[in-house]
Amino acid sequence: MVTFVDWLLRTFNMAYKNLRHFIDTLEQAGELIRIKTYVDPKLEIAEITDRISKSADGGKALLFENTGYDFPVLINSMGSYKRMCLALGVKELDDVAGEIEQLFKLLSKPKESILDKLALLPKLGQFASWMPKVVSGKGSCQEVVMAQPDLGKLPVMTCWPKDGGPFITLPVIHTKDPLTGTRNVGMYRMQVFEKDMTGMHWHKHKVSAKHFMEYKKLNKRMPVAVVLGGDPVYTYSATAPLPENVDEYMLAGFLRKKKVELVKCISQPEIEVPTDADFVIEGYVEPSEELIWEGPFGDHTGYYSLADWYPKFHVTAITHRKDAVYPSTIVGIPPQEDAWIGKATERIFLAPIKMTLVPEIIDMEMPVEGVFHNLVIAQIKKDYAGQAQKVMNAMWGAGQMMFNKILVVTDEGVKINNYKQLAQYVFQHLNPATDIYLSQGPMDVLDHSCSKMGFGGKMCIDGTRKYEEETDTAYLSVAAPKTLDTAAITQQFPEIKGINSSLLAMDISCILVAVQKSRPFHIRELNEQLYTLPALAGVKMILYVEHTVDVSDLASALWRFCNNLDPKRDSFVINKPATQPGKYIGGIGMDGTLKTRLLDNFERDWPNIIVADDETIRKIDAKWAELGVGPFLSSPSLKYKQQIYGEEAVVQQ
Known about the structure:
Layout: H1 2-12, H2 19-28, E1 32-35, H3 44-53, E2 61-64, E3 73-75, H4 81-88, H5 93-108, H6 114-130, E4 133-134, E5 144-145, E6 167-168, E7 172-176, E8 183-186, E9 190-194, E10 197-199, H7 207-218, E11 222-228, H8 232-239, H9 248-256, E12 261-264, E13 272-274, E14 279-285, E15 292-294, E16 297-298, E17 304-305, E18 308-310, E19 312-320, E20 326-327, H10 337-348, H11 350-356, E21 361-365, E22 375-380, H12 387-396, E23 406-411, H13 419-428, E24 436-442, E25 455-462, H14 486-492, E26 496-500, E27 510-515, H15 522-530, E28 541-546, H16 554-564, H17 567-570, E29 571-577, E30 584-591, H18 597-600, H19 614-627
Parallel strand pairs: 1-2, 3-20, 4-12, 22-23, 23-25, 27-28, 28-30
Antiparallel strand pairs: 2-3, 5-19, 6-9, 7-8, 7-11, 9-10, 10-19, 11-14, 12-13, 14-19, 15-18, 16-17, 21-22, 24-25, 26-27, 29-30
GO molecular function: 4-hydroxy-3-polyprenylbenzoate decarboxylase activity
InterPro entries: HBDC, UbiD, UbiD-like_C, UbiD-like_N, UbiD_Rift_dom
Organism: Chitinophaga niastensis
């Protein structure tokens, strides 16, 4: 049945009529489980979903039909490669990129003859059929109008024990530029404070925040509409890294091969929303009003994003379909559903990057351990010296790629989706003293490692084969050891609580070291001491994490490392004199440990990682057999319980 559904979507370009249509498709494909047992939206749904989403291939989509509210909750609906493809109506995500590339080539091809120009007309007709259209009358999203808007009637989830409250986690937020009328559709979490008031968590880099500032200059009230549900393409498009002047519903129309029909809101008629949405929450933001203390929130980084001041959103109307389903998601320690939404973006936007910014790019990967912005791998066709640096500058200047922290550039000599072969190739061609480029720039507001919010270090690792011009002959290449006597090293340095040297046996010249810090500059000094050891000659890179991290769990250790590193501040290059006069052996250590005021002069609060509370874990353990979701799965939070610092969202110092 899966093959038939895929074929049907691809052959007839069938857009989903509404969220129920998508649910039916998931169920026919064997990708949905209905849960009829009562499950509380406060913490319990999140704990069940966390277990399912971390199971093989992302588990199944879950429809909670008994939540104590009038509306069922759909979650993890895009939480696998297969379901992400079903949501977008494609067989493979790369199919979308291929179609975009064909369009670029068609539009950029010289039109020398009248026949060439006529050949373009059918495609222009297709473009027109994808453009959003405002229709008259009411939409199915307005079948029911709440007499008194009350967010308390929706099954809004509280996901994690130290969240500031319940959060709407899949809101498709509509705003307009007050000067141009240009629409923006984005996704920003919304903490519910009252029955008719939430926070509006838009970061300063986001388009809606820019709209807010324009309304503030004009001293005008800002109309806003929030959509939940409808065609899943709307949800994806709201997350897509589009240029500011591109309407997200143009992308949605292209993906679904059918224009998005919009209707005017009933209390905020300046804003239009999709007719087939499940819920519409209408309201306004008053730019002159005092901000509200919003958060904390267990975020996609796997850490709490800490409380801060954000605008208030006042609800003026709530409308919904008669058969509305409340869509939701959770984010936290990866992998979660958002990893697959990110995978779609990685594949879909490869073509625009290639066609407009980086023509030499072949492929791109965003490993789940890097939680999107922290780690990006770019594969290029290399033709000249310095090309990796050219690509670095282009990508860091491209839209949301400006938030990237670690960029690894390699060439056509390796397949980048085979991480073992990729690492072998990169380290084979890497001089850590000369091929790692450190910079600074804008960072994601959620990046807690930066000394200043939203501004911090970046790093590009040039793992391409080198031309003669790129090679510094002052450095010698020394073979790394295949094994280490880790017991001897930990005996000499008792602050080291664990060493993972397993990569050395795979010809990957890198080790991970867990350290219990006790003094300022501890990692810098330890790094210098370790690189004096003859046993570590030829080890190109040492990654340091805090002592609570299990370095034998490579994926988790890399996730912690990428989150906690500010590359410019925390990288320590070693130029070790070789026995040959005038020659050196290069190395680098990187500090991915927790930073504190006392030991690191780090003045910002440091967040805790996200784990479920013991009581919720116990409740779900007891309820599991009733859920009908398959064999028992233990809580993913259990393996991280020993890695938290205190019980609050903020690490206690």
